[in-house]
Each structure stands twice: as structure tokens, then as C-alpha cells.
Specification:
283 residues, TIM Barrel, 8-stranded parallel beta barrel, homodimer, alpha/beta, globular, two-stranded antiparallel ribbon
Amino acid sequence: MTTPAPGSPELARLSLNQKTTQRWSVPEAVEGCVQRGIPAIGLWREHVAATGVEASARAVREAGLRVSSLCRGGFLTADDDTARREALDDNRRAIEEAATLGAECLVLVVGGLPKGSRDLDGARERVRASLEVLAPAAADHGVRLALEPLHPMYCADRAVLSTLGQALDFAEPYPPDVVGVAVDTFHIWWDPDVRAQILRAGPRIATFQVCDWLTPLPCDVLMGRGMMGDGHIDFAPLRDAVAAAGYTGDIEVEIFNDDVWDADPHAVLDTTARRYVERVLRA
Amino acid sequence: MTTPAPGSPELARLSLNQKTTQRWSVPEAVEGCVQRGIPAIGLWREHVAATGVEASARAVREAGLRVSSLCRGGFLTADDDTARREALDDNRRAIEEAATLGAECLVLVVGGLPKGSRDLDGARERVRASLEVLAPAAADHGVRLALEPLHPMYCADRAVLSTLGQALDFAEPYPPDVVGVAVDTFHIWWDPDVRAQILRAGPRIATFQVCDWLTPLPCDVLMGRGMMGDGHIDFAPLRDAVAAAGYTGDIEVEIFNDDVWDADPHAVLDTTARRYVERVLRA
């Protein structure tokens, strides 16, 4: 297919997660989205900090872009008091940033096992306890938290939430507009229960992120996310389940991949728009 | 602790999965087990083929070792008829080998997506259909199949069974002594539902395999299995769940790891026995 033109109704729900164009600053990514007719953007705190929160907020507002997510808070599993207090403080700042940016949600990657610890239950318990602090703070700022289950290969070092069902269990004590979940195809495509859990998620789906699963995995398994169509994921059943769950928000393309990061970001946006329509929308 | 002496009752349930001493032939691994006082062995078909099935069976029988498992059959997801027929034939041969060797079970790694396919449901359906053929064949030979859920990072290329719960669903139509499951700490430690599913497994637990989860994962993620104590897994709760499920069989140490494979196999057996007692039995 040819690349869908800016203004095409097929792009109406596409969001560029700014990690996909890692080398671009917030103003550059905003400008790229405007040129390419992509109406929404997922921001990252490291990029926002480099530009400044207020300046970033102004850039997206003046460009008329929606901010589909802010990535990310979390890392809530520390087992010593100082580190735990610092993590909560950092998440409070992230909530304020999300409010200033008008982000649809603040994505939380909850953290792995603390160094040297094997206490998986304890780490999960501290995530639960942290939410008791952060959910009210988020509600005060009108910010929605999005718990992100990460692929189980990151359980030890990045996120002790590994399935959508588990993330929903953690979210359950809170209203859906305060604690939602992130549905990311890369992390959950393998789950035999994935469609049932997406339906269960219903109004808790705070963001829908897409990218493909590549094999072989690269040496740095964080970088194994591929452009839709380059890997093994069939997006149609996941897209349909998310729609059946009632989600009508933006669909973010978030790709961590050295080849994608090395490419010209404008070309990456073209590919993103084309593959999104071809592999996610129309598939 | 000092290395437990041969004859120690603490070694009574220890089994050496022969992958842990990859460079040893069947006779060498059998001799190593005898010297080290390890009363059981998990055999691999490639090693058995090199020695010969009858000669391997004689070696373990004359040494008085139990054969806790034969690894492995499976790869049942092919979507063309020829490949599918070949896979079933190969599994029938594996069943015969398991019978000849007197193995407690034949471990099945079910296979990933066929090349170029994204039809995960279809691949799973073909596993289900293959079991309808293989379970009666196994029963005829008095062989028990052990469905092994592999870590979800292998879903695309190695096993579309990713959780113990899913493996149990696949086993359910068959008697537990015909189709059981393999409980391997490396593959399932992250699962928030792991203890409930181990209890559910009950008499279907056909083998209990232990090794650790290392970070960072090596470039070849197949080789990320570590000696118990070198990684992130807390073995005690898994050991307790397996015991509560009623499993009293052998506990296999199965390690794919370049450093372990490069080491002197006798030293590896010493470490295996010591870490097994320290990290699995007494932890």
C-alpha cells in the first residue's frame, strides 16, 4: 500500500510514542507528528525534562496534539526506606508532569526485584502498598495511572507485574479512571488468557500500545521490539478484543529497536503510519 | 556447606539432567552419577542416539540409575502435512525410546509458530490434535508424556505452551499417568498463579526440574539457565508447592549455560549436588 496521507481518517487514532523516534526532542517529535498528520503523541519524561515540562506542554498544545501517555513512573519495589521514599517522590513529580502535559495517563513500570533479593511476593506487595499512596495523589491531579504488565522475561529486573490479569488484580481497588492498565502487544501477545483479560479490562484500558515481537531476540532484550509486520504478532485479534472492551482512544506505536533508532525519523514516521494502517487497522 | 557425600540421604531424589554435563556421553554421565552418588538421570535423545538406545538402556540399568525423564519429543505445530507426519513419526520413535530406557516420562516441547506464520491459535490447535494421536501411542507403550510449558519468551520459536495452567488445560482430556506436565522453575517462576497451578497439577506432575534465572540474559536466550543460587529464583516456595501437590519423584537439575558446559563435568556434579541441597532441599 502507499503511505496514508496526512488528514486520512485512518490516522485519526494513531499516536507516536516518542521512543520510536528516540533521537528527536519533544519539539522535533511534535513537528514530525504535525507534518505526518499524526494527531497524538506519547511522551517520555527524559525527553520532556530536556525540553522543560512547561515548554513541552506548550509545544503539544500549540500543535493541537493529544498526549496519549506519559512514560513513565513506577520502580516501586525498593526494599529500603530511603529508596522507597525517593521512588514515591519521583512518582509524585511524574503525576504533576502528566497533569501539566494533559496526558491521558501516566504509565507505570512497577520495577523488578531489588538487587540481591529473591522475594518476589515482597516486591509485589510493595507495589500494592505504593499504589495506596500514589492513587490518591493521581486522583488529586486528575491524572490516570496505567499499570503496565511487562513481558515475563523482565520479571527479575524490570517489572514484577507480568500479565494483564495480574495488573487488573492490582488495579481493582481503585476507580478505573484513577488506576487503569496499559495494553501493549509486545508484552502480552503470548498469553493464552489475553483476550479474556482484555475484555475484563474494559474501561480500565488506559492506553493501547503496539509493536511486534522479533526473533531472534537481540542481545539487549529491551531492544527486541519491532515495527508491526516484521515479527510474529497477529494484531487483528488483539485490536478486536481491545475494541470489544470498549476502548476508543489512541493507539500508540512504541518501538525500542536499534535499527529503527538509527534510521531517519521522518522515514520511521512514514513506515509507522503505513504499517499501522496495514497491520493494525485493516488486518 | 561441604559437598554432600555419596550415599547421603539428601541426594536420594537428585537427578542429573544430562544437558547439565552436555559434553559427556551417556556412559560418561552414568559413570559420573554413580561416582557422585546421584541416583537418577534425565537423558537426551541426541546423546542416547550417539550411544545407541539399547546400549544406553543397559548402561543405566546396570548402574542402577533411575531415568527420571527423556528429553524430548514435541515440535508438533507444523502446518503442512509432510512435516506434521514426520513430527508424529519422530514422536512415536521417542515414545519407543522412552519405553526401552524405562524413563519416568517423555518431555514434550510443543513447538513454536511455523516459519512465517502468525496463527498462534492454529499452532495451539495442532498441538491439541497431535496429543490425540500421541497419547494413545504413549499409553500403549506404558510411557507418560510430560507437557512442558516454556517461558513466554520462547512462544514464537519454541513452545506455544507458556504457562503451567495452559499445559494443564491441554493435559486435561487424558489420564494423569498418560499425559502429565513438566514443572521447571526457570520457565514458570515469574507466574503470579504458579503456586495455585502447581497444586492444581497434583498427580500430573511428571517431572520437577530446577535451575536459576540469570540477568542479564545471555545473547542466546536458550543459554540463560543458571546454577541454583546464581540467579533470582527463590526455590523454597516452588519446592513446597510441588511437595504439597503430592510429588515425591526425582528433582532434575537441568542447566543450559556456556560456563557450566565449559567447566569440568565432575566439578559441575559437585556444585550441582551442593547447590541442590543448599538452595532447593534446605532453603
